[in-house]
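Colleagues,

For the teaching module next term, I've prepared a clean inverse folding example: a structure given as tokens, and then the sequence designed for it. I'd like students to try predicting residues themselves before seeing the answer, so please don't circulate the second half yet.
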């Protein structure tokens, strides 16, 4: 409105950055959000390093992507990056690098290189301790610490980017910063992160993400194998035909794809080891349900999103639900990209296929349970027969000892052993 008086009210840097630390990440989801950035930068190899150093531990997330110019790096460190995201880019809000990092540490540095011929680095640091003192959005350039120097070493040969987390106050509180407990905790977090990334990015690791080649992801030098919840190598699984639903969006429509799978029961898996591996981080009952993918990146793993409850008899049922980024608002994707809400229209569309899937999974479960029950009954009958025969053998020995001489008894036993060895064994003779 003409003539309206306005005031620009800049937020307090110290207060806002402190509040954004509690946006909902844990260590694994924070690392995953940074892996999103690496994939968006065209990386074919991503490494996560955890390094325990008494009172100086750090985490590095490195990639061989395109790197960033100084201008791009400054923009990347802005809260709420001023850039547009193309369709099916993994980024969303322009917050992940900062909020994901500061949920775990107080000092974030990005080391990046764009030049193939020369090892020339752009190094920028956001330090919450500095922001708390100055209450300004200051970024410092070209700082140096052992962690930053190691990050530079990782980029000596080619372009790429390394994100450096230092002052890990949320990961290793000060009282544990030099203890064996702290070392074990960092190792446990690395293991959990490896499992999480193998699940969330399994399509990228396997080279199955649309329009992308295989991405190698390593945690502390260990190359990750994809954890595919649908066990594609198991021949005894049942795959239902894919169903596609149209959802209206502003300016047109977009697709939601549904594909149900009934996994094999335990006795039909290729091996017990594979059965245990496919049980997932929350184990079979809680891993049943919907696996929701945003642009091939897993954002929800398991649960029925209010369509039905968890049931022992449907634990073999899993379904992939895929949507593109133009449905982000409809699915209410959160900043950490680990929670969605099914739109009411999508819930209605999925009711029937989910019910059909669960009926098939229930049938597979019950058939396996009945077969196991029959097997147990046969085993019990055989054990009962063996017991009865041993009792007969004991009675026979007693009768022979009472009614015959010792020599006749030995001859009779020898004759049974010779002519009927199997029966002699069952009789305990």
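(Answer key — instructors only)
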């Amino acid at each position: 409105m003409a003539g309206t008086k306005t005031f620009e009210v800049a937020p307090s840097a110290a207060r806002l950055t402190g509040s954004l630390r509690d946006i909902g990440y844990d260590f694994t989801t924070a690392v995953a959000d940074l892996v999103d950035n690496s994939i968006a930068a065209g990386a074919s190899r991503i490494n996560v390093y955890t390094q325990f150093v008494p009172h100086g531990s750090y985490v590095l997330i490195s990639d061989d992507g395109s790197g960033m110019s100084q201008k791009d790096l400054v923009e990347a460190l802005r809260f709420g990056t001023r850039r547009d995201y193309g369709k099916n880019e993994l980024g969303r809000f322009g917050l992940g690098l900062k909020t994901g990092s500061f949920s775990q540490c107080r000092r974030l540095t990005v080391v990046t290189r764009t030049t193939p011929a020369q090892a020339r680095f752009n190094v920028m640091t956001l330090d919450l301790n500095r922001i708390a003192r100055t209450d300004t959005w200051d970024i410092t350039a070209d700082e140096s610490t052992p962690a930053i120097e190691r990050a530079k070493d990782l980029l000596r040969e080619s372009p790429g980017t390394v994100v450096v987390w230092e002052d890990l106050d949320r990961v290793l509180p000060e009282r544990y910063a030099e203890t064996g407990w702290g070392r074990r905790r960092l190792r446990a977090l690395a293991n959990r992160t490896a499992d999480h990334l193998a699940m969330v990015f399994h399509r990228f690791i396997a080279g199955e993400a649309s329009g992308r080649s295989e991405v190698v992801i390593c945690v502390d030098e260990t190359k990750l194998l994809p954890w595919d919840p649908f066990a594609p190598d198991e021949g005894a699984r049942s795959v239902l035909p894919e169903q596609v639903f149209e959802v209206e969006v502003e300016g047109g429509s977009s697709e939601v794809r549904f594909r149900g799978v009934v996994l094999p029961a335990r006795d039909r898996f290729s091996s017990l080891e594979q059965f245990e591996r496919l049980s997932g981080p929350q184990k079979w009952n809680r891993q049943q349900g919907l696996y929701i993918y945003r642009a091939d990146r897993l954002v929800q793993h398991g649960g029925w999103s209010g369509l039905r409850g968890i049931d022992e008899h449907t634990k073999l049922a899993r379904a992939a639900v895929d949507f593109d980024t133009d449905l982000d608002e409809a699915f209410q994707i959160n900043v950490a990209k680990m929670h969605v809400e099914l739109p009411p229209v999508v819930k209605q569309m999925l009711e029937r296929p989910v019910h059909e899937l669960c009926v098939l999974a229930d049938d597979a479960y019950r058939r396996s349970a009945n077969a196991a029950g029959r097997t147990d009954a046969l085993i019990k009958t055989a054990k009962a027969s063996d017991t009865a025969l041993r009792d007969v053998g004991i009675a026979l020995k007693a009768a022979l000892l009472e009614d015959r001489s010792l020599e006749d008894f030995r001859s009779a036993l020898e004759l049974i052993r010779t002519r009927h060895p199997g029966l002699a064994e069952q009789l305990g003779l």
